[in-house]
Design goal:
323 residues; Formate dehydrogenase/DMSO reductase fold
Amino acid sequence: MHPAFSVIFFTVSSGAGYGLLGLMAAYGLGDGLPLDPWFGWIGFILAFGLISFGLLSSLGHLGHPERFLRAFSQWRTSWLSREAVLSMATYAPAGLFSLYWLFVALPARNAGLWPVLPELLAGLAVIGCAATVVCTAMIYGSLKPIAQWRSRWVVPNYLAHSLFTGALLLHALAMTFAPGTEATAAVIGAGLVLSLIAKLGYWRSIDRLVGPSTPGSATGLGQFGDVRLLESPNTSENYLQKEMGFRIARKHARKLRVLALLFAYVLPFLLLLVSLVNMLGFWGVAAAVLAALSGLLGMLIERWLFFAQAKHTVMLYYGAPAA
């Protein structure tokens, strides 16, 4: 598939935003958020900003962006529509929880005020963030014509990547404004391990995947012997070939996988070690921020590969031996 930057930015940006927002809400459930105004303001603004910019960037991939409201109408059958509905619905409890935290808990320096309502809002925000990320993953995981996406690894990948990038951002904020916040290192460690396992598992599955569709099965003529294309149906590339038939050389895919692993996991891990050793110093803060930026860059490379290595079955009609 042709990797569209608008969709790549949308999935990475909104995934990181939902990860950060979900973690802040989860910490809020246990009164674990530091009572620091800068942490609260910048954390919530960054989370909502990443989500909002990501959702807005997804409009760039629509043929008619002015008709985006129709995306909310097919929630019974469309994962894209469910994602749109849930993304908007999540704003309500998450927004109210952030308002409570910023304008009630912080001024009073007491996270335990009104214990039932904010905990309910935080719980709904966590559920909404996770459910929206699942819907984003299922937009691709539900597509039968693309075998690389019709995989049990797609949903775990999106959830684990969201958790990991959100944890990196949370750690950078904690190191900058509230050093010593409990459990950020543990959450990052869990997110890194889960994200890496999910990514390696997905790559292994698509590398071992034998295309389930062939020209014979697509045309129904396979019972009569080997089916192959005698002549191209067109003299120049059409829209389908450009969008659905994007190809990346195997050697380039290997190099990009190495870069994705380096920027998404290796460098963040090393930088996190530096940040923990220098927890109260300038270099600790710098290392935490660089770890978050490196992780996001790595995820952009990973998400580009996610689209570039997908093969649509329509290419069987243009000479592909399998898809």
